[in-house]
Amino acid sequence: MPAEDALLKVEGVHVEFPILKGLVFPRRVGSISAVAGVSIEVAPGETLSLVGESGCGKSTLARAILRLVTASAGQVLFKGVDLTKLSPAKMRPFRRHVQLVFQNPYASLHPRMTAREIIAEPLRMLGMDRREQVERAKQAMQRVQLRPEFGDRYPFAFSGGQRQRIGIARALSVNPEMVVLDEPVSALDVSVQADVLNLLKDLQADLGIAYLFIAHNLAVVRHFSDRVAVMYLGKIVETAPRDRLFKRPAHPYTEALLSAAPMPDPIRERKRQRIVLRGEIPSPANRPTGCCFRTRCPKAAAICAQIDPPPVTLAQGHVVNCHFANA
Amino acid sequence: MKIGDMTAIPEPLLEVRDLRIAIPGRQGEHLAVANIGFTVASGEILGLVGESGSGKSLSMLAVMGLLPAGMRASGSIRFKGQEILGLPERQMRRLRGGRIAMIFQDPMTALNPVLTLGAQIVETIELHNPSLSSRELRNRAIELMELVAIPAPDKRFDQYPHEFSGGMRQRIVIAIAVANDPDLLIADEPTTALDVTIQAQIVDILNRLRREKGVAIALITHDLGLVAGLADRIAILYAGRIAECGEIGAVFQRPRHPYTAGLLAAVPSIDADVARLYAIRGTPPSLADRPPGCQFNPRCPFALPRCAEYNPEFRRFGETVVACHRAEELNLASDTADAR
Amino acid sequence: MTVAASLKSKSIWPGITLRWSSATLIFALFVIISFIVIAVTIPLWSPYDPVGMAGRRLQPPSALHWCGTDALGRDVLTRALWGTRYSLPIAVFVLGVAVPVGVLLGTAAGFFGGIIDNAVMRLADVTLAFPPVLLAMAIAASLGPGLVNTAVALIIVWWPIYARLMRAQVLNVKKLDHVDAAVIAGAGRFRILFKHIMPLCWSPILVNTTMDVGLVILLASGLSFIGLGAQPPAPEWGQMVAEGASNFYSWWIALAPGMAIFLISISSNFLGDALRDVLDPQVKLPA
Fold it and tell me: Cβ separation of B270 and A54 shorter than 8 Å?
């Protein structure tokens, strides 16, 4: 569990998108809180996974950390510096420390730039001279097991897995201390997924990078992370070390997620007792009072509609926001 | 021997044999599906598993007679004993939506945004039962909405698609598909666009349809977990051919084809630790540049010279049929672990 | 426009489309290059004087006057050939100003948004709210007749089309992941605009510009036809068609300039279509 040595410390971050009405003179009639007060910490060299279903705000949180969207409240401390307070000009030199790998290996590469130019772009922004750029790009390509001869090719000449490697090489070219992985394998075929996951793990072991891994596939999360934070409707509902979370989930939502995750084993898959949640995820424009999960929770009681459950520490590093958490 | 002969059941509902689908390209045609055969029995769920480009979706579009213009299919597709490949569009249309129905991956685009959900269900029923009164039609539609577990169906009847979430829309899509009690439901990645907790609900509904209505389902997916939970039999497709086909338990427990074993070893598990995932090296062949012999041989850790020379015949092992030259000698469960 | 639209094949499997468009492409290039060559070299080989009498009045087509003579006895073919020297420069001039202005304003609107966006787009909306021919007529009439004023009128009518097109392109490309990737790489906003957004915006602009060559010539001729553009005795096509209209039974007077307008319009359309086929990735075949 990271304490003062946290590399990234996110505190009470909110992200709100205005709901506008009117075509000519739009006015604000409400807001969607995509992220509603999230605090997480990432230690150097560790992998924190952020798990949740679509619309839970996990990608928005990542974009707020990277300042691709503006946090409306809260702090994003990277090595003690609050990134949300930096001017765009002061932010730019910080970008090299926190990089991003995108979900979509097609849209995330400039179609008219060669692989080498794409990988060298962050280096160029650091003001490196041309020869050094080429050299570093070559090293980055070798590191992700791409043949440097392919550097002159354009993205369309690569397969999905290879494109994702280019994206990883681009993120690594500036030797970041942290990389945000936004569903890096969910757009890839199964056999290619394994390859990219193995590569990411090897790179972490070699370079000591911290990962913030955003995912919805729990099996992949289990394989990949040190700690896991479960997100629901813009809030973190449970954080725990990986083994503990998968063995003793405390939040009813985590339990339901685990029980719903399909297993590639016909015998056990059919014997399993599933917790099938009723209903749908509420709209973030119209959040339930009290606990955000109560509308679907099998354990919900009167108190859940009134009081938003405070975080409870169950064990070292295991924090859950639930009135009726499994001890 | 043909795969159809080996898995033949007395009277299969759907029998696909020697199916080939050619796609026109700049330098002539390419085979996207190069000889696929399988059967689906009444009330059975067959999982068709493969990666993108394996030909799983195209084969099913061929069954529906919905191949994109320019593609040519040859071989044989028999539905209840009747040859339906090349059937005139008029007759095909009567089958489609009647005896054979299909649900697609994306529930967002499968519905008409300007019609109420009720109207869309009613339209399908009416197309095949023109004599029903509007009251009867409405009642049938509400019954269907109950069948797919939509809460308060009589209120929901007059709502529009945008008022529904993805999971709810997929239920409506399923309700429309089963509106005329089809014998066969083709489900193309029915849960891929949905969240895990919603996926579980859809799986329940599909299981219930089979149990209560006896619908046979051809489930196209890349998700091994989904097949494991639903299917009775599974066919693994690779590069437009069947690699392995058989009873679900047998295939998962004792995969006979190196590709199947590779796929199974490549997915992490939710309740077991592996230090390193097994990764199948390389990428699937492009249609224009197929390898000679077994399509998997350039990526196969067990390939022998003969694998690149000629295509393996299908061989039967108990409940499964496999196209691999080395199916007898390999014990893939342990060999794959060694190759890791 | 309608001719080209009905000829255009929207097939997903463009084996046929490509062959069809390569035939039309050759035709279009042939016409356009010939017109340019004529415009440049006509003084060297002009069969007659374009503004002087060449024979008897109102002669039908003959071996001496292939397209006949007009009411003043001038050779119609000669005048039609000289007409390229009016129409082509006006198209180049109008688009040469309207496209950059539109692109510049559209880019600013799409990229910076806010007040700039509102100001530019409302101005464009106001301009587009009038029927283009009427607006061009009103402007040309208020500036006074003449070719330069016609061009100015057409520029005012034309820039909003490009501003809108470019703005939509910029907004679309701006949303793509690779632009976020550039932000994270530490690129400044102008590098993002010029390197990561604009290079992906050009193809529809290029296609539209090519197609508009014909439209500009058509509209300029139209203004001349009603007496607002080129003034007699200039051998401008629209002007010539007008002369033909006043000598209605001498059908040949309007024929050559009319054909010239038709050929250049349809060729620019064909060329634009062919360009779209080449530039639009959706119509591209898998390798």
Answer: no
